[in-house]
Amino acid sequence: MDFFQFKKLAKVLVIIGCCFFISQAYAKIPEHFQQQIETLSYRPLNNTGNLQIATDSLNNTWLKGQLDKSYLYAPVVLYIPNAHIFAYDLYIYNFDRLHLVDPNLDSQDNPIKGRYAQHYIVTDNQTYYINLYQAPTDNLRIIATERSQFGVMEAKQLLFIGLYYGISVISILINLIFYIIFKDKRFITYCLLQICIFISLFYEDGMFYYLSNGSLQMKYLLVWNIPITSFLACLFTGYFLDIKAFFVQYKIMFIALFSASFLSSLIFMFYPDKLLLNLTTILSFIGPIFCLIIAATQFRKNVYARFLLSSFGIIVIFGIGYTFYLNLSAQELSYFDINAFRLVSALEIIIITFAIIYKVKNIQDQNHKYRAEIESYLTNQKSLKNTADAKKDISMLDILRIQYDLTPREAEVLTCIWKNMSNNQISEHLFISVSTVKYHVSKLYTKLEINSRNQAMNLRKDAKY
């Protein structure tokens, strides 16, 4: 046997081995069920290449696709990278019979963890069928790749999203720490806003599915998280630009807007219609867009409005683009995919975090300046008070003595007059004669420009400091 014959025989043995593996690994379905699947009225699915779509009598959505020829008899991983499709059934051929493939099991039937439902397959036919049940087909992608390539692709993707999660978590922790230190509402509001955005991307990346081994579906998470994120974005704008009074002016409009958003989210839980989801999304975007308009009006005079407009503006644009990309399945909007949104979000986190730190630092500097001015003012007031107290310590008698050049004896006589003493009483009190008392009283009248004792008493009442 020459080399080429040996190579041909080895290839045949590999094919037989693969086919035997296929026949043992997957559950064969009844023939009548296979006929029902194959005879459905399939039609091309828009913008999805070789995919075809059909609906059965139970209103389940079926897809029919074709694998690349190079994947025949090769170990392949097939999955749908869409967090909104929680579970589906995959059917592949084996010797012209359809088999159901269990998800998240490797070639040895060992359970594996993934961000989405993964099917490890080896098949001898390019055609496969998928039962999506009632899952949406918007922006549907089905990826089939060799297992070795799948590991490389997943590692690169996890590295990319891991960088974003690292930046996001660090930003959340920094803002939380700064809030504890400075007690500034900008930090805690932005922290909550980042948590909401983090949850949305964490969900879209299939991380909840990964952590819960596929048991945590949370299909109503986004319909609630979107309006909450919108509310926090508007609240943060008010704190960041110090325009809370402006929001009070439009309070009724914002209350009506967010009430409608949350009401549509609540109705969606009982009637999960796509129109309600789109309505919730549109209502949720109105608030942030209005905030951007407010920031635009302050673009020239407020440097923080420029920060907000440049970062939040890009986020809102990419958020709207990503929403249209998901709902319209428009390939021309593919540059608004989740990776682009994640990259823009990471840049926004860095810009806004530094802007908040810069703003709070300025506020702290202003507070120190105001505190120094207040301390200086209080010091001056204390000095003035001390001077006034010193003046108060000077008696009215001393003021009159200085003002009218009274002699010590005249001052003593004036004090006695203020005590309602008569001339005789003054004479006895000061040990001088009555005539001497009269002399000093006469001198007092002349110096003080008064004519009676009553006027002397009034001098005491009218004395000014």
Automatic annotation (TrEMBL):
<keyword id="KW-0732">Signal</keyword>
<keyword id="KW-0805">Transcription regulation</keyword>
<protein>
    <recommendedName>
        <fullName>HTH luxR-type domain-containing protein</fullName>
    </recommendedName>
</protein>
<feature type="transmembrane region" description="Helical">
    <location>
        <begin position="277"/>
        <end position="295"/>
    </location>
</feature>
<dbReference type="GO" id="GO:0006355">
    <property type="term" value="P:regulation of DNA-templated transcription"/>
</dbReference>
<dbReference type="InterPro" id="IPR011623">
    <property type="entry name" value="7TMR_DISM_rcpt_extracell_dom1"/>
</dbReference>
<feature type="transmembrane region" description="Helical">
    <location>
        <begin position="223"/>
        <end position="241"/>
    </location>
</feature>
<dbReference type="Pfam" id="PF00196">
    <property type="entry name" value="GerE"/>
</dbReference>
<dbReference type="Pfam" id="PF07695">
    <property type="entry name" value="7TMR-DISM_7TM"/>
</dbReference>
<feature type="transmembrane region" description="Helical">
    <location>
        <begin position="340"/>
        <end position="360"/>
    </location>
</feature>
<dbReference type="InterPro" id="IPR016032">
    <property type="entry name" value="Sig_transdc_resp-reg_C-effctor"/>
</dbReference>
<dbReference type="GO" id="GO:0003677">
    <property type="term" value="F:DNA binding"/>
</dbReference>
<keyword id="KW-0804">Transcription</keyword>
<feature type="transmembrane region" description="Helical">
    <location>
        <begin position="187"/>
        <end position="203"/>
    </location>
</feature>
<dbReference type="InterPro" id="IPR036388">
    <property type="entry name" value="WH-like_DNA-bd_sf"/>
</dbReference>
<feature type="signal peptide">
    <location>
        <begin position="1"/>
        <end position="27"/>
    </location>
</feature>
<keyword id="KW-0238">DNA-binding</keyword>
<feature type="transmembrane region" description="Helical">
    <location>
        <begin position="253"/>
        <end position="271"/>
    </location>
</feature>
<dbReference type="InterPro" id="IPR000792">
    <property type="entry name" value="Tscrpt_reg_LuxR_C"/>
</dbReference>
<keyword id="KW-0472">Membrane</keyword>
<keyword id="KW-1133">Transmembrane helix</keyword>
<feature type="transmembrane region" description="Helical">
    <location>
        <begin position="307"/>
        <end position="328"/>
    </location>
</feature>
<keyword id="KW-0812">Transmembrane</keyword>
<feature type="domain" description="HTH luxR-type">
    <location>
        <begin position="399"/>
        <end position="464"/>
    </location>
</feature>
<feature type="transmembrane region" description="Helical">
    <location>
        <begin position="158"/>
        <end position="180"/>
    </location>
</feature>
